[in-house]
Amino acid sequence: MDHLPSPVPPADPTTAPPDPTGGTPPPVILRRPERQVAPLVFASPHSGADYPPDFLAAARLDPLSLRRSEDSFVDELFSAAPELGAPLVAATFPRVFCDVNREPWELDPAMFEGPLPAWVNTGSPRVGAGLGTIARIVATGEPVYRRKLAFAEAEARIQNCWQPYHDALAGLIAETRARFGCCLLIDCHSMPAHPAQAATPPDFVLGDAHGTACAPRATRLVEEVLTGLGYRVRRNDPYAGGYVTRHYGRPREGVHALQIEVARSLYMDEARIERRPGFGALRRDLTRLIARLAAADWSYLR
């Protein structure tokens, strides 16, 4: 499936594992199964935690504050996917550095030294909220940078981070659809506690863009499996799916996308960005979910 064209030349996606000697990891980690058994692709766009030194130097916030925008450890929660016959793609760079769940050029002009090119999307609600492709603020609302950025910095991040991630993801989707006649993308995220839902907080929120990005039957199966495991599940409230869900979810073309938001309170200490004792149990339950999805009949998605 094609994704939005980029005005900068695309970089080749790197899918090798991180350098064991401690060098800079590739922007994308792609773990393939020995044999793909189902039309499933799992993705973790926001679990990256490799913070470039020059970015940290330009930030006015300490590293722990920057990390609160991460979907920390989500790639680990879904790490059984390749063993169960489905590929898993994950970003290694952090969301606050470059957010791949945005259009490639959603930029806030107030963040940059000079005027932006006319083709940049400066008016989206996400840009207005400070959460464009290059975020102005972290999840807690604090400004990220101590200075204005050069547009060349945004270009480099989009070319070296955004583009390789979407090249890898679009490639996996195309391969899967060609092999199985359809594809179900599971876009994996985590969510903080939401004040409006303090009385009965959900454990999971499934986002299918209100039924437009994924077949209702597929969303219902995921919901039934999670409910059967004892979790509280909601649909599309307050997260109906971001750019990835809405862009790649094209049911009429046999490609379906479902965003899964996992409550961070289930598995991590949000203040310290550390795994809690419940991490292992949640990962086992998500492994059960992946196994159930891998064994399902997806012929109705074609």
What would your notes on this structure say?
- The chain is an alpha/beta fold and 302 residues long.
- It has helices at residues 53-58, 63-67, 74-77, 125-128, 151-180, 216-228, 243-248, 279-294, and strands at 28-31, 40-44, 88-91, 183-191, 204-207, 233-235, 255-263, 268-269, 274-275.
- It has a 7-stranded mixed beta sheet with strand order 1-3-2-4-7-5-6, sandwiched between helices. The protein has a two-stranded antiparallel ribbon with strand order 8-9.
- Helix 6 (216-228) packs across helix 8.
Task: Detail the topology: elements first, then pairings.
Elements: E1 28-31, E2 40-44, H1 53-58, H2 63-67, H3 74-77, E3 88-91, H4 125-128, H5 151-180, E4 183-191, E5 204-207, H6 216-228, E6 233-235, H7 243-248, E7 255-263, E8 268-269, E9 274-275, H8 279-294
Parallel strand pairs: 2-3, 2-4, 4-7, 5-6
Antiparallel strand pairs: 1-3, 5-7, 8-9
Helix pairs in contact: 6-8
Shape: globular
Q: Which regions have little confidence, pLDDT < 50, spanning 5+ residues?
A: 1-21
Number of helices: 8
Task: Tell me the total number of β-strands.
Answer: 9
Helix percent reads 25-40%
Q: List the helices and strands in order.
A: EEHHHEHHEEHEHEEEH
Mean pLDDT: 92
Oligomer: single chain
Cα-atom radius of gyration: 19 Å
Strand content: 5-15%
Strand count, sense and barrel status of the largest sheet are: 7 strands, mixed
Label the structural class.
Answer: alpha/beta
Measured between the Cα atoms of the first and last residue, the distance is 15 Å
Numbering strands along the chain, what is their spatial order in the largest sheet?
Answer: 1-3-2-4-7-5-6
